[in-house]
Structures are given as C-alpha cells and as structure tokens.
C-alpha cells in the first residue's frame, strides 16, 4: 500500500512515520558470502564484498559494496554495489552495473 504524498513544506518541522516489516531470512554475513561468490565469478577476481548495509527500498535489501583490491596496495576503494534481498536472497545487479564496475577496475591501473 502506498500512502498519498502531500506537498512538503519549504521550511519548518517535518515528521515522517514509516512502518516496514519483512522476514529477514538472510543475515548480513550470508548476503556478503552470496555477493562474494557472484563478484568472483561474474565481475573480477580482484574484487570482493565489503560490509553490508541494510537499505529500505521497494524491498528490504542488504547493499554489499564491491571493493577493488590490488596485491601491492590492498583495498583500493569501492567500485560499485550488489543488492541482496533479505527475504529471498536474490541478487540484484544489472549488466550495466557490472560493466561500470569492470571499467572502474581498469581505470585504477
């Protein structure tokens, strides 16, 4: 159910109450493991999942940052993210996102 959106005030106090519920069938640790497996097999062996963050979107997801690592330098930085549904464990990442992460990998060399 979507609530009607009213015009927001330009100034003054704004109070928003949101109530969301979901069955969390996948822990942050398990989401990171699923993301790591995907990253290794589909993106690059030089990347790994970082610490997942719980995100309220159209669904509740774990957002796992994709971190580029280099042997000589260690973790270089975040190049993207993989979303993992907390209820189903389904990963959400588009082919365009994969291309962008691979391109950021190449840019860092």
What would a concise description of this structure say?
With 109 residues, this protein is of the alpha+beta class. 27% of the residues lie in helices and 29% in strands.
Describe what you observe in this structure.
It is a single chain. This protein is of the alpha+beta class. The protein has one domain. 27% of the residues lie in helices and 29% in strands. The protein has helices spanning 28-43, 95-107; strands at 47-49, 53-56, 60-70, 74-85, 91-92. Strands 1, 2, 3, 4 and 5 form a 5-stranded antiparallel sheet that branches. The longest helix is centred in the first third of the chain and has 16 residues, at 28-43. The model has no long low-confidence stretch (mean pLDDT 87).
Secondary structure blueprint with pairings:
Elements: H1 28-43, E1 47-49, E2 53-56, E3 60-70, E4 74-85, E5 91-92, H2 95-107
Antiparallel strand pairs: 1-3, 2-3, 3-4, 4-5
Shape: globular
Total domain units: 1
Query: What is the succession of H and E elements?
Result: HEEEEEH
Helix content: 25-40%
Summarize model confidence as the mean pLDDT: 87
Instruction: Please tally the β strands and state the result.
Output: 5
The description of the largest β-sheet is:
5 strands, antiparallel
Which regions contain 5 or more consecutive residues with pLDDT less than 50? Answer: none
Q: What features would you highlight for this structure?
A:
109 residues, alpha+beta, 5-stranded antiparallel β-sheet, 27% helix, 29% strand, globular
């Amino acid at each position: 159910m979507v609530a009607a959106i009213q015009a927001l005030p330009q100034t003054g106090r704004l109070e928003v109450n949101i109530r969301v519920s979901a069955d969390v069938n996948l822990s942050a640790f398990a989401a990171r493991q699923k993301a790591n497996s995907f990253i290794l097999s589909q993106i690059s062996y030089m990347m790994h999942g970082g610490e997942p963050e719980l995100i309220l979107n159209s669904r509740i997801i774990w957002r796992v940052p994709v971190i580029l690592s280099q042997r000589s330098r260690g973790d270089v930085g975040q190049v993207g993210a993989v979303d993992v549904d907390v209820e189903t464990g389904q990963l959400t990442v588009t082919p365009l996102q994969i291309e962008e992460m691979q391109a950021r990998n190449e840019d860092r060399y």
